Amino acid sequence: MASSFTMNLGNLLLLAASFVCVSAQINPTVQILNDLRLARLDRLNRITPTISKRQTTTTFPSFNFTQPLDHFTDTGFTWNQRYFVNSRHYKPGGPVFVLDGGETSVTDRLPYLDTGIVDILASATNGLGVILEHRYYGVSVPVQNFTTDSLRWLNNEQAVADSANFMQNVQFDGIDADLTAPKTPWIYYGGSYAGARSAHMKVLHPDIVYGAIASSGVVEAAISNWGYYDIIRRAAPANCSAQFITAQKEVDALLSDPTTNSKVKSFFGMPGLTLDADLTSFFSGLLGAWQEKNWDPAVNSDEFANTCTAMGNPSTAKIQTFQGFTVSNATWNLATIINKTSSRCPATSTSDECFGTLDDSDFQETDLSQTWRLWQFQVCTQWGFFDSPPPSSSIPSMLSKFVDVAYSSKICQQAYPPGQFFQVPALPNIEDVNKIGGFKIAHDRLAIIDGEVDPWRFDCAHSFISPSASRPDTPLRPFKLIPDAVHHYDENGLADHSQEPPAIQAIHAQEVEFVKGWLADFK
Q1: Which pLDDT tens digit goes with each residue over 178-225?
Q2: Which amino acids are annotated catalytic?
Q3: Of 192, 273, 439, 497, which has the maximum CB count within 10 A?
Q4: Which positions ≥6 away from 267 have C-beta within 8 Å?
Q5: CATH architecture of 63-221+444-520
Q6: SS (H, E, C) 20-36
Q7: Where are the domains positioned within the chain?
C-alpha cells in the first residue's frame, strides 16, 4: 500500500506542476496575481525557514523508513519518512548524528550533511551522519491533500514519536551492525523550530537521545512575537532603525486620519486597499530579511542591507507628495521601495485582489502544492509567534500598530475552516510547547546555542525576557551565545574549515569538544 500511495502522490505533484506551467503560459495576468499571492503568503507566514543556498556536489543515498500515520491510534495507514545518510567517516563503534529536517524539504539541509555541522561532528568522532525529514514536508507526506482534517496529524507529539521510532528501529543499509538507540549513542541536532524539537527530544526521551544540540531553538512558544522586531531594531544600523521607526509612525498617523487614509494608500501604489494592515505588513516583510543574513557569502542575503541603503539617512526636510500631503524622507523612501512591488498589480485588478487578505478563498486551496499551509498550521495550532508591536509605548517600534495579533492570526480561521474531525483553535495552544520547559528547558547533555543578534533569540533560552538567560555554560550543559550571529550560524560550514570566520571556527571546535566529552562517558 505504501509504495502505491507514493506513486500516486508523485503523479499528483507532477499534475499540479504541469497545471501551473500551462496556466502561466495561457494567462500572464493570472501568473502575476499568483506570484503576488505567494509573496503575500510569505509575508504573513514569515517563519519561512532559513535554508542553505550553498549547493553540494556530493550525492548522498536516500532511504525510506515506514512510520504509522498515528502513533497513538491505529488507523491502519503508514507512510514513508525520507532520510539521507553520510557514512564517509563511520567506523564500527562510532555514534550516530541525526539532523532534524524541520519545516522544509530535507534536500534543503543536505549541505549540512556534506560540509556543515553533521559532517564536522561525524568526522571528529568516526560517526554516521543522518538527516531525517519531518512528517508532511518534502516527500514525507502521509496524506493526499492539506485540508484541515488531513493536517490533524501534523503536531509536536506525532513528530516526536516519529523520531523516537526511527532511532529505535532503523537499520542502515550497508552497515552490518545494530546502530539503534540506546545501544548506540545518538546525538540529535536541530536549528530554529528543529532546534526546539532537538531540545524536546532530549527532555522527553533521555533514554534514547544520548545528547542533543539545539541551535537557535525556539523553545518558548508565544502568542505575541513582538521581540523579533525589537531585536532587529537594536541590532540594525542606527540610521536604518531610525528611518523605519519614523516611517511607520508617520504612516500609522496618516492611515489613522480619515482625510489622508486613502491618499497614503495611493501614495504607496495601493489605491482602494481596504485593510490598513495589508499596507503596513509590507514594512515588516522588509524587516524580516534581517533573518537571512549569514556569515557564508554563498548563503547570505544582502536584501536587508540594500533596503537600509534605500531608506537613506534621517533628515528634517519634508517632501510634498502628489496626493497633497507632506512626508519625511523616510516615508518617501519607503514608498519608493514598496512601489516596486505594488506597481506589478495588473491594471485590470484591484489592490485588494493583489495585496489584500480579506478574501478567504485566497487561503483555501488544499492540494499538495500548497506547502505554505504546513508550517502555518503548526503556527496556528501550537506555536504562535504572531507579529505585533511592543507591549509598551516606551519601546520604540519598527512595526505598525495595525499589524497586531488579531491581524496576524486571522489567517488561521481563513485558511483552516472546521473539518469533520479537527478544528483549529481560536489561538494556538502554546502550552503544548512550553510545558516541556520553555525558556528554562535544560538537561544533561543538552547544548543550547543561540545567536547574539538573531531575531528569534526572543523565543530562545537566551531571550532577554528569559528568567534563565544567564545560566552557566558547562561541558555537561553547554549554553553558548555566538557573537554577532543571526539564525543557527553554527549549522553550515565550508569544505575548508580554516576559511570560516574565527567565531564560527570557535563554536564548531567547542561543539566537537563537548560532544567528545559526552561520548567518553557513554556506557
Answers
A1: 999 999 999 999 999 999 999 999 999 999 999 999 999 999 999 999
A2: 192, 454
A3: 192
A4: 321, 322, 323, 327, 335
A5: 3-Layer(aba) Sandwich (3.40)
A6: HHHHHHHCHHHHHHHHH
A7: 2-39, 63-221+444-520, 223-415
